Amino acid sequence: MRSTLLATLFLAAVIDRVAVTAGKDVITESEVVEEIRLTDFLNQSPLDLGPAARRAAAERLVDQYLIRNEMRLEGFPQPQAGSADQTLHQFNQSHFHTPAQYQASLQKYGITEEELQQDLLWQVAALRFTQQRFGQGDKELDAWLKQTRSQTKIQFHQEAFE
Question: How many domains does the chain have?
């Protein structure tokens, strides 16, 4: 029994290996894959889990981690869970004719409604934070991300992108 537990833990570690370290934060390969699935679902684009898509998703996650850390440092309030409901409702109305089509699409992309709601809640929080902090100027946000990235040790573990 003990060897089975150790083997299971070893397999879990191998399956969900570290893809990126950003400062003290770790981004796992499963987080990268989930980011791809959610983004492709929201864009209703073909699911692409190839190396280039993994790297692009990892880059987005690094930016998200940096923004999350800044939100935490500034004590930025998190939106209520219902804040994502309206966004989800609008998305469903514009992309799906029936609840069955929506459920089928969730399955196709390998995501759950809970994962989607959490992602939308994060997007609402990030949008509010960046608008408050940087206004409508993408240039200011991009400059801040560039500066923060240069001050943060970021390491991409190549084996997660092959």
Answer: 1
